[in-house]
Amino acid sequence: MQNTATRSLLGGLMLAGFGTMANAQLTTTQTDLNPTTTNYVRDGVISPNEYGTGNTYSFTGGGTGFGGTVGAGTLYMDFDATDLKVGLQLGGNLNDIAVIYFDTRPGGFTDATMSDGADGSRRVISNLARDTEEGFPFQADYALTIGSFGTVAFELTGGSLTFQQFDGTFTGNSSATAREVSIAKSAFNIGGSFDFFVAYGSDTNFLSNESIPAQAFNADGNPGTGDAANPVQYTNFNRFQAVPSPAAWSVFALGGLPILSALRRRHRK
Ligand SMILES: [Ca+2]
Ligand SMILES: [Ca+2]
Is-above-0.85 flag for pTM? Predict the structure, then answer.
């Protein structure tokens, strides 16, 4: 078993957490053990071992207010050398817009600091419920929307969100079609680890109670246009990370061992 000092050193090495909020809670971490290779195929099907052995690089959620599309869905991820591969197996028909918020660097934006109303994706990303400012578990840097139109990726800003990419491979609302998309890690500033959560809402800012990971408000009704006296709080988030490379381990060996020795010496006193 690793002692606390080792674990905290490993945590520091992985550069995890880029400015989470005080009440934020990490729910699930998945680690890509082969971060330079993938079995991903963009075919609308989650095939065996496509997202890790046994498709274990997966994340589930909660809430059924919009039919379980996201709340009963499963989100898959995998790295290769250049890309993050994302697959969403829907739990119901995709009649609205799912948004994945990414935390990949310090700083960023929340519902309260974004306000781009130029199209459906931008409206959902920047204002989940029409009349309220939802709480985020972190300041988000990038977002990916998934709808019946395909997928759109943006860099977040306080003004007009910066368009990154559109993929129209998968359209329509059928729950039978998994939505699969590849994003260049460089486009989202993704290094060895990032945090994310998923929300679901309409392009008119009527918010579902569904999310990945599960949130406390999943058990309540849909937030809809929002209750100013009780704005929704997304406190829970997930993490996807690459297993440290041999280079990172050698840095750990060189830099970490003297620290561990010092800790041991101090412990003996
Ligand atoms: Ca991989
Ligand atoms: Ca596939």
Answer: yes
